[in-house]
Design goal:
By secondary structure, the chain is of the alpha/beta class. It has an eight-stranded parallel sheet with strand order 7-6-5-4-3-2-1-8. It is globular and about 45 Å long. About 40% of the residues are buried.
């Protein structure tokens, strides 16, 4: 059985109710390929609103959650809270969480493990900075970040990995399809060797980093790219074209 293509839209800290209504409008109009799983990552304050208004073929994700059920963690939300309002997905480990908010590999791994234990599905982000790529450390970095998660979890069936080269996020620079495929392939080989061949064959690895309607088809044609995690373009009607990249 092939891996089902999965396209995520990460809205980041964007949107008002009026703007979100417009986004939901083009998602409802679609049409969205039935062969692609679609998940949108929504600011926490709008999760309930989007969940109640999104078309049935669009799932809703939180952009973060903490590694505890409840407690004195001002400003955080827990997996249990997400489940309570019917949210089944969360994005964890995004490079902005790592870089701007100082989240370590270990904290992200703890959050992934706790979210999974609460029956959430996780899009776990990994990726190298421009300095790390230029220093030839791409594989070292993505393997280290993946290993941290592997140290904390056994069951990968509800995990999607999102490879996002940090230098390509929001910059307009995109890894070439060949560069992206190369990392996805080496990551899958690493997973086969260090986790299991079954996980390597079944896990979906998204590409993220300045994905647009113009470059999505070529990126999506690569054998080890199983979808996209889309930033800015997920706020625009071209997101529909990206969802349909495999058609």
């Amino acid at each position: 059985m092939g891996r089902k293509f999965i396209v995520g839209g990460n809205w980041k800290m964007n949107g008002t109710k009026a703007q979100i209504t417009e986004i939901l409008g083009f998602l409802q109009k679609g049409p969205l390929s039935a062969d692609t799983e679609v998940v949108v990552g929504v600011p926490a304050i709008y999760l309930d609103y989007v969940k109640s208004s999104a078309p049935a073929n669009v799932q809703v994700a939180a952009q973060n959650c903490y590694k505890a059920e409840k407690g004195a963690f001002t400003g955080e939300i827990s997996p249990a809270m997400l489940k309570d309002i019917g949210i089944n997905w969360v994005i964890l480990g995004h490079s902005e969480r790592r870089q701007i908010f100082g989240e370590s590999d270990e904290l992200i791994a703890d959050k992934v493990a706790f979210a999974l234990s609460n029956e959430l599905k996780v899009i776990a982000c990994i990726g190298e900075t421009l300095d790390e790529r230029e220093a030839g450390k791409t594989e070292e970095v993505v393997f280290r970040q993946t290993q941290a998660i592997a140290n904390k979890i056994k069951d990968w069936s509800n995990v999607v990995l999102a490879y996002e080269p940090v230098w390509a996020i929001g910059t307009g620079k995109t890894a070439t399809p060949q560069q992206a495929q190369e990392v996805h392939q080496s990551l899958r080989q690493w997973i086969s060797k260090n986790i299991s061949a079954d996980v390597a064959n079944s896990i979906r690895i998204q590409y993220g980093g300045s994905v647009t309607g113009a470059n999505c088809k070529e990126l999506g044609s690569q054998p080890d790219i199983d979808g996209f995690l889309v930033g800015g373009a997920s706020l625009k009607p071209e997101f529909v074209n990206i969802v349909n990249a495999k058609e």
